[in-house]
Design goal:
It is globular and about 60 Å long. Strand 12, helix 14 and strand 13 form a beta-alpha-beta unit. The chain is an alpha/beta fold and about 375 residues long. About 45% of the residues lie in helices and about 15% in strands. The N and C termini lie close together (about 10 Å). The strands form 2 sheets. It has a 7-stranded parallel beta sheet with strand order 3-2-1-4-5-6-7, with helices on both faces. It has a 6-stranded parallel beta sheet with strand order 10-9-8-11-12-13, with helices on both faces. Helix 1 crosses helix 17, helix 3 packs across helix 4 and helix 13 packs across helix 16.
């Protein structure tokens, strides 16, 4: 019997990549499968999902701004129109199961599916759930989470603790460090730092690295730096100082290779990034974004820092602390090993397989 599954989620890579990981595993599991994605019409999923080979439909939806904003005037209109469009999408596609991985668009589509008594599942990546998933919790069939303690927000009987689905090339890929370094034109004789600010880039991290780029020269450190498209032209000026010691790029398509090459990773503390870093046990410095709902990146980072599995540097101290921390780690391989070992212990392998098993139960 043909399975029809609708997946909704987006806004950032932290919502999109888990959705794609689930979709790819579903394709392996079922020979006869129709997949449809629903996202927000002006967000990055409208580019990333078709690029991965899937159809996506956009909703005119955005979140409610907590500060005074003219955009809040349109929020009720967008919500009503998105609910109406979601109704017609669900009626036409006739899904057997609807999955939400977070983001504004998942709210209307899962709400409609629950009203129509279609089995629903949400996958919550963070240790502190977003507003959309907290609202949906009472209506969905199952809630797959990556952290303990979410009974504060979700009905305990619906919760399944599986971890976050991550890209298979990262979790299951086999990389040789020497080959990965060679791909960047680097050598094993020098330490390598990977700096990545998430799929959209990170303005404050980029500014700090650009201002202190001579540190890499002075400390004989190789640099892989994902800037994000908005910041690439400005950040690429560091090449004048660093030359072949640095590889600066808008976006890293093979993140598994980049992780393999790096001795230390500097990253935002999004849930997906943390899941990737713990799954492979990387020494990492986490700089939570302060510009996210409920400050959930700080909560994510503290979960690791409190277990001595990462070093936490808050954004308002980045200029005074980041390069001091990097220097300490560079000069202390034993500390690197301690952090990476503890990070690996916090990894949750095979999350995507467990989530698809749960979806399979809903399809019965």
């Amino acid at each position: 019997m043909r399975k029809r599954i609708l997946i909704s989620g987006g806004g950032t890579g932290g919502h999109i990549f888990p959705a794609l990981a689930i979709a790819k595993e579903l394709e392996k599991r079922y020979d006869h499968l129709d997949l449809l994605f629903v996202g927000a019409s002006d967000r990055m999923e409208m580019e990333k999902i078709p690029a991965a080979g899937y159809k996506v439909i956009g909703l005119w939806i955005a979140g409610f701004q907590r500060s005074l904003s003219i955009r809040n005037v349109l929020f009720p209109v967008k919500l009503i129109l998105s609910l109406l469009k979601s109704f017609f999408i669900v009626i036409r596609f006739k899904p057997n199961v609807v999955i939400g991985t977070g983001g504004y668009a998942s709210g209307p589509i899962l709400w409609v599916a629950s009203i129509l008594k279609i089995p629903t599942l949400i996958q919550e990546q963070n240790s502190y759930p977003g507003v959309t998933n907290r609202i949906l919790a009472s209506r969905v069939s199952k809630i797959c989470v990556a952290y303990t303690g979410l009974e504060r927000f979700f009905p305990p009987k619906k919760i399944e603790l599986f971890g976050n689905p991550i890209r298979s090339e990262i979790e299951f890929g086999i990389y040789n460090k020497k080959d990965s370094l060679a791909a960047y034109g680097f050598t094993q004789a020098k330490p390598t730092v990977l700096i990545v600010g998430g799929s959209l880039g990170a303005k404050r991290i980029n500014e700090a690295v650009l201002a202190h780029c001579s540190w890499f020269l002075e400390n004989d450190v190789q640099l892989i730096w994902q800037t994000g498209a908005l910041y690439f032209e400005k950040c690429n000026e560091a090449k004048k100082i660093l030359g072949s010691r640095a590889q600066i790029t808008r976006f890293i398509s093979d993140m598994g290779q980049a992780y393999s090459a790096a001795d230390i990773v500097v990253s935002r503390a999004g849930a997906l990034a943390i899941s990737e870093l713990t799954s492979i046990g990387k020494t990492c410095v986490l700089i939570p974004s302060p510009n996210v709902a409920e400050d959930h990146q700080l909560k994510n980072a503290l979960t690791l820092a409190n277990q001595n599995a990462a070093v936490l540097v808050e954004e308002n101290t980045i200029d005074t602390q980041l390069f001091s921390v990097l220097k300490t780690l560079k000069d202390n391989p034993d500390k690197q090993l301690e952090l990476s070992t503890n990070a690996k212990k916090m990894g949750q392998p095979n999350a995507v397989l467990k989530i698809v098993d749960c979806i399979d139960q809903l399809l019965l």
